[in-house]
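Researcher: Please translate sequence to C-alpha cells.
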Amino acid sequence: MAEASDVSRLVWASASGDQAAWNELVRRYSPLVMAITRTYQLDTVDAQDVSQTVWLRLVEHLAYLRNPEALPGWLAQTTRRECWHQIQRRHRVMPVDPHTDDAMLLSGDQRAAGDEDREHRPESSAQPGQAAGIQRNARIPGRDSKRR
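Model: Translation complete:
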C-alpha cells in the first residue's frame, strides 16, 4: 500500500482536530488563496473577507474531501467562487451617507424633474413623500378600484 502524502496526512490530521496540522495547511496554502484574490483585483478588506470565507468553507468540508491530494485545486476553485460572490455583493451594496441630500440617490433625470417641480411650488406645499415621487391614494394597476 502506498504511503499517504504529506497533504493527505495534514488534511486527515486537521479533520481529526490537530491544530498544528491545520496551521500548516493555512500557512502552506494562504499564498495561493491571496494570489487568486489579487487576480480579481479585490481591495484588501474584500480579499481578507474572501480568504476567511474560503478557510471557513474548508473547515466545513474538510472531513468530506474525497481526494485530499486535490486540496490545492479545491482551494483555488473555492477562492474563485468566493471572489465572484464578493464582487456581486459589492455591486448590490450602495453606501449612503445619511447626512447628504436624498437627491443624490436619484438619477440625473429624476433630479432635474424634481428641481423643476420645486421651482413652481412654494416650499410649504411639499408633502411628505412627494420628494421621492410617492403619490397619495395612487391606484395600483391590476387591483380592484374599491377599497376594502
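Researcher: Any highlights?
Model: Confidence is low (pLDDT under 50) at residues 124-138.
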